[in-house]
Amino acid sequence: MNPITFTDSAKIHLLSMLAKQKNGVGFRLSLKKTGCSGSQYVPEIIESVKENDLHFMAGDLPVYVDRNSLSFLDGLLIDFVEDKTMGLKQKRLVYINPHEKNRCGCGESFTTE
């Protein structure tokens, strides 16, 4: 079983982003320490694989996860949503993480168990 699950809309969006990047090889997710709560998701379309990355496929989408972040990402669901706030469309990835315990007020960072 893959450590991360993607909704169909997230896979379609990420495959579209991957197709737009000339030398893209896949989608990579890691965490970095930042913000007022502790960690932040770092999603990226990558052109090369890092040595420490775990690789799996989500349908046709090649996915790479930083092994050091894996324990905090296992069970994560990634969705792609379009919000319409005050007439403006805002498209974004949404992370639903069973390990997430608190999120800062600005939504930039979160804490885990």
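the 2nd protein, sequnce then structure:
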Amino acid sequence: MILGQRSYEIYLTHMFAVLGLFALFVHLGKPLRAVPLLFIAAIAAAGILGWVVAILYAEPMNRFIRHRSRTDRTYLGAAVPEVD
């Protein structure tokens, strides 16, 4: 998995992963030896969550919007008028 290709989705969802893992960290008594593992797990969880959001929501929505703008000429995906 390449994180750069899903960076926007990761950016939008990373705090869910971070806060969830931090809550687990606090529940376990804040073991300082686990901090490096917490950082690695947060990066991995954020990447996976961003990938899931991209596959299940962002990409299907992008395909729908592109298809709609190609088939319905009254709906323009951009504010620039069409040049014939």
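The longest helix spans residues 35-71. The chain has two helices and no strands.
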